[in-house]
Structures are given as C-alpha cells and as structure tokens.
Specification:
With about 425 residues, the chain is α+β, with helices and mostly antiparallel strands. Helix content is about 55%, strand content about 15%.
Amino acid sequence: MAMHDRTIVLRSMSGRLFSTTTTIVTVAIAVGLMTLILSMRSAVSDAFARGTGNAQMLISHESSPLLSVLSTMFYTESPSTPIMWAEYEELRGRYPFAWTVPTQLGDSFRGLPVVATTQNYLTDFMPVDGTHWALADGRVFEDAFEVVLGAQAAARSGLRIGDHIHLTHGDGKSGGDHEHEGFEYTIVGILEPTATAHDRAVITDLQSAWVVHAHDRRESELGHGITTTAADITGEDMKITGVYASLGARNAALVQVLSTLRRDAGWTVAQPADTVRKLFVIVGNIDQILVAMAAAVLLSSGVSILVALYNSMEQRRRQIAVLRVLGASRARVMNLVLCESALIGLLGGVLGVAVGMFLGDAVAGVLARRVGVVVHPSLPIDGYLWMVLSTVGLSMLAGIIPAVVAYRVGVIRALRPMG
C-alpha cells in the first residue's frame, strides 16, 4: 500500500474514531477469548495429570474415585470418611503391592493442607512420574512433630528451617475449627518445586497426627490440662483417609487387583491418571462449547466490521467521488476499503492475542494460588500467527460488501449539489 493510500486509510479510520475503536475492541475480545481457551485447554489437563505421579491406585472410603482423587491428591477439600489403621494393614498384607503410602488429611496451616503420612511419601511416591522429590533445604522428617514444607507452602507462609508452628484442626474456615495449641511442630525441610498441587502441602509424620487427635479425644473425656503422648494412642485414634499404592513392575496383576478391590463394597479405588483423563473428557466437551462460543463472537465481530464500513460508505460517497476525479480507479478505491478492514482486523487480532496471553497468565496465577497446580498456557508461535492472520482474513471478507459499494459509487451522482 503506497504512502498516500496509507494516509487515506488512517485518516478515514481516525475520522470515525469511536466506531473504529469499538470495532477493534470487539475483535480483540473475540480473539482474546479464543486465544485463552486454546492456550489453556491442553495446559490444564497436562498440569493435573502431572500431579498424579507414579501412584497406580488411590484407595479410600470416599463416595467416588473422582472425589477421592480431587480431595486426596489435589486437596480441594478434606476427605470425609476415614480408614482405620487395622483396615490398612489388612489391605497391605492381602495384595502384592510394591509400595503403599498412607495419608491423613483434615488439618491445615494458614489454609494450606496438612498431609500426615510416613516417610514413604517422600521416598516411594513421586509427585511427577519418573521424578523423585528433591530437598531445597534441610532434611525429611525423622522424629515426631517435624514438618517438611512443599515449595509453595514455604513461599506463601514465609517459614524457614527451625521455625515453629501450630496446626489447625480443619481447614481454618469453619466455625468448629481450632488450633492444636499444645503441640508445636518444627520446620526441618523445604522441598524443591514440582509444579503440582503437592507444592502446597505441609507434610508431617502420621504418628504425630494421631497423638494430636488422641489429645482432642482425651480432653473431651477427661477435661483440659492433660498430657498426651504416643502411649495414649488407641486403635480409635489410628485413622488415615487415603492410600497411594503401586504394584511396581507387577503390571500384569493390576487388572486382577483392581477388579478384586472394586468388588469389595467397602473400598473406592481410583486410578489417578485415568480418573483425571476422564475428568478432562467431560471438561473437553464443555471446552468445545466455549470454543464454538468464542468463534461465534469472532464471526459477530466480522459482522460488526461489515456494518461499520457499510454505514460509513453512505457518509463517504463524496470523498470517494473526489478520489475518482483526482484519478483513483475503481479498483484502487475498492482496495482502500479492503485495506481498512484488514487493518482493523490486524489491530484487533494483535490486541486480542495480547489480551488472551494476559488472561492466561491471570488464570494460571489463580490456579497456582488456589489449587497449587502450575499451568503454562501457551500456543506455538505459528498458532498465534495463525490467529492473527485468520482474523485479518475474516475482516477482509467482511470488507468485501462495503468495498463493492465503494467500487460502484457514481462520480456525477455523488458530486451533485445537495438539495
């Protein structure tokens, strides 16, 4: 486009600044929504799948496998139905597990989930399949009332090695929650980031949790002022809420073990990675609807370009006629209108991609803070380029009718004195 033509197009757009700006913003919103959805759709599912780690099974008494995975591995809420330790020991002895990790959820620290477990959690379970936990500082817990912090838990709380804390019974948001004031925990380790929900966890040993809850039980029976130790733990206190399990190399036995466990009405057995995949099959259907809605908004923005340019043709007939008198051909006038529509599409597309990237980062930040899942929303460079070029193409299609109107403007009739 020659400089003179560029000046004509820019002056035409600035002369209808409000209409032009509104149209560009409409296009940008549509492109931004499309960019956000396309960049998040695979990133979120990948992030959730990453958090299931190398656990082939998650065994609990929850009402459904999905609820079990979300509450036990992603800490969306505390599991509601406990498993007695005797049940766990029977389970462990009955099946050929390579390893099992018992976990107890229900306490918290400043809104962060507390995972009471054994050292197997940090040695056998891998938060990301194939990648072991790594310590950023300190060591794993070895004695009672010692805590290892996930990377995000450490960052959010500001705690360091040697600091002392008191845990809260419940999530700290309910009226019946209370602080375990008589039991002080010591921070002994901080883990490297894993980009999973486990980074939010405050990890401690299981026996300490039993002592704390045995103390609550004994206070309700004997009154305040008592002292509770591990010797006071009874079978009633020895509870967990979930079991991570793996058969290791014995994959051939997996189907049989799953089938046997699922026939037992007392157990809920989830295959964590498979459960997350099924969840995102459901979410994927919603995702397709959102993509269709964004596409509809994008098409409507194309219509708005058509309407804006078409309406402007009635106001610009004399301007077009003057251009024709000055030597501009019909084809050149038509190209000017197409260039204007393409420029609107280009500006809206570039702005929309920027908006989509900003929204993606904002959503990723919310997921990281609320769920602890680290998401990296992005598209390949050619994906962003395709988005902008498609928007320009759609805008040029929308500009064809106004361009044809401009092409057919009659010079004599348009320059006839008004009135």
